[in-house]
Write a structure and sequence with these properties.
five-stranded mixed beta sheet, globular
């Protein structure tokens, strides 16, 4: 590896935020064996959601475009990586991103959940290269906490 994973983030103009505070009685991430499991992470910056609403192509008030939702999924992935780092102290200990699960608050006629969750998957690939290739689920739901448009959780293997 030529550069550290955090160097790669910086090269992309990104930096890890502080770990988002839990909204209820859970931990942001836990370690079991050689894996870190994150709680679902929302697109929070400094404790506030960047957008609210359901994802739709309609452009109606109270909706979020699929393109914007993909950007928000990237933010969720950054927040998840911050939670991972809080458990293993150094992102360079990551051996592989094993699984990404993305939840998309979807209008009843929106079926593009995979493209939204690609925001997270693409970021992980750009940062981790082959180690960022992962299994994934992209799930449409009617509502998410705080009226968030997207939520992402990770399973990460480390050494």
């Amino acid at each position: 590896m030529d550069k550290s994973y955090e160097d790669r983030l910086a090269q992309l103009g990104l930096e890890l935020p502080g770990v988002a505070r839990p909204l209820a009685a859970y931990a942001p991430a836990v370690v079991s064996g050689k894996h870190v499991y994150t709680a679902g992470q929302l697109p929070l910056v400094s404790g506030s959601l960047l957008e609210t609403g359901v994802v739709s192509e309609s452009g109606a008030e109270g909706t979020v475009s699929p393109e914007r939702a993909a950007e928000l999924a990237e933010r969720c992935a950054l927040n998840a990586l911050a939670a991972v780092k809080s458990q293993i102290e150094d992102l360079d200990r990551i051996q592989r991103i094993v699984k990404v699960t993305g939840f998309v608050a979807s209008a009843t006629d929106f079926y593009g959940q995979p493209a939204v969750v690609d925001g997270a998957s693409t970021l992980l690939g750009r940062v981790f290269g082959d180690a960022g290739v992962h299994a994934r689920s992209a799930v449409g739901v009617s509502v998410l906490p705080l009226n968030s448009p997207v939520e992402v959780e990770l399973v990460v293997e480390f050494h």
